[in-house]
Amino acid sequence: GKADIGVTGLAVMGSNLARNFARNGYTVALHNRTAARTRALVADHGDEGSFVATESPEDFVAALERPRRLMVMVKAGEPTDAVIRQFAPLLEEGDVIIDGGNAHFEDTRRRERELREQGIHFVGTGISGGEEGALNGPSIMPGGSAESWQSLGPMLEKISAKAQDGSPCTAHMGPDGAGHYVKMVHNGIEYADMQLIAEAYDLLRSVGGYSPAQIAEIFHTWNTGRLDSYLIEITAEVLAHDDDATGRPFVDIVLDQAEQKGTGRWTVQIALDLGVPVSGIAEAVFARSLSGHRDLRDAAHGLPGPRAKALHGAEAAAFADKVEQALYASKIVSYTQGFHQIQAGSDTYDWGVDLGRVAAIWRNGCIIRAAFLDRITAAYRARPDLPSLLSDRHFAEEIGAAQDDWRAVVAAAAAGGVPAPGFSAALAYYDALRAERLPAALTQAQRDFFGAHTYRRADRDGVFHTLWGGDRREVDAG
Ligand code: NBP
């Protein structure tokens, strides 16, 4: 029989996805530019299911059941275009190319448009969960035509992670680039989550006076509550680990410069274009880039500032509870911002993304999987047109209950000279949203002063300009 699906690009992600399909009963055609990888996969794991190893693009395409489903798992960027150029001429109308790489959604939109002219469905697909997820069940975020989802959906549902209620962690996100866009924002939120956790650690250590091993215990406890998540869990493991060579806490021997591959940066770039305030994600991206500026940091090392005085005993424990509140409240804000960005992309590109569905497929398999996502899913199910997560009654209540502690933690960070850009940006966003009036009035007035940019009045309709350089009369500028 012919193969149900083919995977080309058999590095770690492609191999594991191919094995996942095979373990779920599908016959999988295999192909890789360098044939040795294909042979190695069959030699090491051929007994896990039904594989058809091929060495030429022609044999690979010929091995596939029609309409063909061909999954591309090569390095994102130019290699993806090279592979499409190689395979598209061999395909026929109705066939489906799935790109599971970390593509920029604008590239996905271009590729989809070009292939559509040829009658080929191009499905740009976000996949999260790393190597382990690819093998045992990732969260899968496919875009592309509704028709492609008909042919592909059941297979993706089968290999994806399952939420606690048994539903698959995959769903059609929307046309063309919607899937890769949602994956991009997922990664942006992941950056924000990681930054908030790092700030919590830093504060527990320098203000709370706890050791990494003690903080591991604290995170471990938090992981049994509302912060229950993969990232909190692995944080506890990292903090509990001691370096083999020196016996010191592992976190103390790692160079304090965080790198990035680009999806967080993309999220912020697009947010700027769309005018969406994703300050939590932006602070996370900037915190990583700041960490990498060793020269600037060395030059600034002697600048004056306080040194946090460590708390003890019951005071430290009380502070740890406050940090939990601050972390949870800031997390609500960063998800609020991330979902706003998905909504904005969906509106701009006319994708019709269902935000509740996004929350539902992030409940398991992906890096940001968390009990929290269940809550977001419920919020959107209760009210599909929820204007913002902060308008959900439960989240509003929780953030209200957390805010005193949240403020105390941000104040302690400022007083102790501990950078907490994520916590403070989240709090500023919260306070700005709830403010009755913003100083944006003054900003707009300044704009009118130096650039005659006009303004609207709070008390009546119309557009106005004040003759700042003259007699300061207000004139109608409508
Ligand atoms: P890599 O991103 O390291 O890519 C290696 C694969 O690309 C190999 O199969 C290689 O073939 C192939 N390739 C390259 Br490089 N240039 C090619 C070309 N011009 N023509 C054909 N094939 C080419 O693999 P990965 O880490 O498994 O990731 C695959 C994709 O999945 C990437 O887009 C990545 O961003 C995405 N992703 C990764 C993760 C993760 O956790 N690693 C998670 C989610 C998504 P060769 O064997 O002949 O060199």
TrEMBL record:
EC class: oxidoreductase
Keywords: Gluconate utilization, NADP, Oxidoreductase, Pentose shunt
Keyword rRNA-binding: no
Membrane-spanning intervals of the chain: none
Superkingdom of the source species: Bacteria
Catalytic activity, reaction form: 6-phospho-D-gluconate + NADP(+) = D-ribulose 5-phosphate + CO2 + NADPH
Protein name: 6-phosphogluconate dehydrogenase, decarboxylating
Organism: Actinacidiphila guanduensis
Lineage, opening ranks: Bacteria, Bacillati, Actinomycetota, Actinomycetes, Kitasatosporales
